[in-house]
Design a protein that fits this description.
Helix content is 40%, strand content 19%. The protein has helices at 64-78, 110-113, 121-140, 192-195, 202-218, 228-237, 243-246, 252-261, 273-286, 302-325, 327-332, 350-365, 375-378, 388-395, 443-457, 464-470, 478-492, 494-500; strands spanning 21-22, 25-34, 37-44, 49-55, 88-94, 97-103, 107-109, 143-144, 153-156, 160-163, 170-171, 335-338, 342-343, 371-372, 399-408, 415-424, 429-439. β2 (25-34) and β3 (37-44) form a beta hairpin.
Length: 501
């Protein structure tokens, strides 16, 4: 079937009647509205092919910004020649109304396909790999889409993916009506840097692709809220729910890729769409899904299979045997640095974020399987933005624990919201993330919950002594605890020593 092209674009523009001649095109039917325009099915009388014509509606075509964006879509997409990107045939004008003649995507939008149920992992990966191919071509041409989402992706005959609606695209070196620093795109799919009005790069498209892949696999969006403001807060501050919690059959390797794509910091995402594609192919092969991804090798010689089987058997034997020998060594390599938690509240509450950092550091240090970097060493990175690889190398840590904390004193009773992420320093992969919310008088239980969840994240078998220690509270008085944290904060400041003197 011919789909209804994207999200609804509300307009009072009149519909062009079937049979109307638009230059060499004859309108056959109205398809719908989306991507800043009204879309029609038309017949190209010169080349005898069916095309899609997109018009800027009468009611808004006099808006200079929308008109420029509309034409920018054509210019951006016209630069690209790729089987996974809708082809632009020409830019025309009909009675003063600009239009774009483009390839007709005869199929369903991805939004329609996943509306009722998520996709099998192999199918979702197959689509994602094609999207990577399309974005690689666009990014090489200096074009950033900035609005990747299921309604802008169509699946046509043979399962081929097509990206359309480059109306928000930014072309390197061009001054466009939509600044590269503006907040554009559909809110649930845009990256944290787009929300904050920061520089947009190709990795912003990868974040949006990550949201789309998450939705393909789980049927849910990773960042939600009742209002736009709450969605924006979630995108910027909150980790997404682990995909495996929503769908247990998602492979660990695929979950790792998803969480990396959804990293708040663009530097922690894949460096390019091509790198993402290779990661997806590796994950796909590692989990032995059915052979729908076309990148796989075929036709191996029987002798090669026999030799490979022998080699694999030998490797398996060595792995099983050596895993027993080096089990303790592997456990000993779990070196974690608890980096200073970021205070999202008023600046005066910074001492509380530091206190929470100290509490988690202390609790983790109780586990013999972990080696925890000292507070003094980790605190050097407060308010400093460095790549995980740099921090890990400087501290000698292969895991970094990061977090944000918000102390909502205006709420009755006062509440604490904490977001925690466990990152592998070698490549910046987000291995685990969780959100917590408790009233202030449950702050010690909150610390215990975080420590317990981290033991599971590290797959540590907790001994009874350590488990009991995780439930201990430094005091039963919350007021005393608050004063204690303030005192520690003053002690750690250089001028406190001067006050003592």
């Amino acid at each position: 079937m011919i789909s209804h092209w994207g999200d609804q674009f509300h307009s009072s523009g009149e519909i062009i009647n079937a049979g109307t001649a638009v230059n060499q095109y004859v309108i056959q039917s109205y398809l719908g509205s989306g991507g800043m325009g009204q879309v029609y099915l038309a017949e190209d009388t010169r080349l005898h092919r069916r095309v899609a014509l997109k018009f800027l509606p009468e009611a808004v075509r006099r808006d200079d910004e929308l008109r420029a964006r509309f034409l920018n879509e054509a210019r951006a997409a016209a630069q690209l020649n790729h089987p996974n990107i809708i082809t632009i045939y020409e830019i025309g004008d009909f009675n003063g109304a600009p239009f774009i003649a483009m390839e007709l995507a005869e199929g369903d939008s991805l939004k329609e396909i996943i509306e009722n149920s998520p996709l099998p992992p192999d199918k979702a990966v197959e689509y994602a790999i094609q999207l990577c191919d399309a974005l690689s071509a666009a990014h090489r041409a200096g074009v950033i889409h900035r609005d990747i989402k299921p309604s802008n992706i169509h699946i046509v005959k043979g399962g081929k993916v097509k990206i359309l609606d480059f109306g928000l695209a930014h072309i390197d070196g061009k001054e466009l009506s939509t600044s590269s620093h503006s907040t554009t795109g559909t809110i649930q799919y845009i990256s944290p840097e787009q929300v904050k009005g920061e520089k947009i790069t190709a990795r912003s498209d990868l974040f949006s692709l990550g949201v789309t892949l998450y939705q393909m696999l789980t049927g849910q969006l990773p960042f939600t809220g009742e209002y736009e403001a709450s969605i924006i807060y979630a995108i910027v501050n909150e980790p997404p729910p682990a995909p495996s919690k929503l769908r247990p059959d998602i492979p660990d390797s695929l979950e790792r890729i998803l969480l990396r794509l959804l990293s708040k910091d663009p530097q922690n995402r894949h460096p390019s769409a091509e790198a993402l594609k290779q990661d997806l192919l590796s994950a796909f092969d590692a989990n032995s899904h059915p052979g729908t991804v076309k990148e796989r090798r075929k036709g191996l010689l029987p002798m090669t299979i026999i030799i490979s089987g022998v080699v694999v058997a030998a490797i398996l034997f060595l792995v099983i045997f050596s895993s027993r020998l080096f089990k303790n060594d592997l456990e000993g390599k779990k070196v974690v640095a608890v980096l200073p938690f970021e205070n999202l509240g008023v600046p005066e509450d910074g001492y509380f974020a530091d206190g929470m950092t100290d509490a988690i550091t202390t609790r983790l240090a109780k586990f013999e399987e972990l080696r925890v970097i000292s507070r003094a060493s980790a605190m050097k990175y407060k308010d400093i933005r460095l790549a995980p690889q740099e921090i890990g190398e400087e501290l000698g840590a292969n895991y970094l624990l990061t977090g944000t904390i918000y102390w909502d004193k205006n709420h009755s009773p006062a509440q604490i919201k904490v977001n925690i992420s466990l990152v592998r320093s070698s490549d910046g992969t987000n291995l685990w993330a969780e959100s917590y919310e408790k009233v202030f008088d449950r702050v010690f239980a909150l610390q215990a919950d975080i420590a317990d969840d981290l033991t599971r994240a590290f797959r540590i078998a907790v001994r009874s002594r350590e488990a009991a220690g995780s439930e201990e509270s430094p005091t039963t008085s919350l007021a005393a605890y608050d004063f204690y944290l303030r005192g520690i904060d003053y002690f750690n400041r250089s001028w406190f020593k001067d006050d003592i003197d």
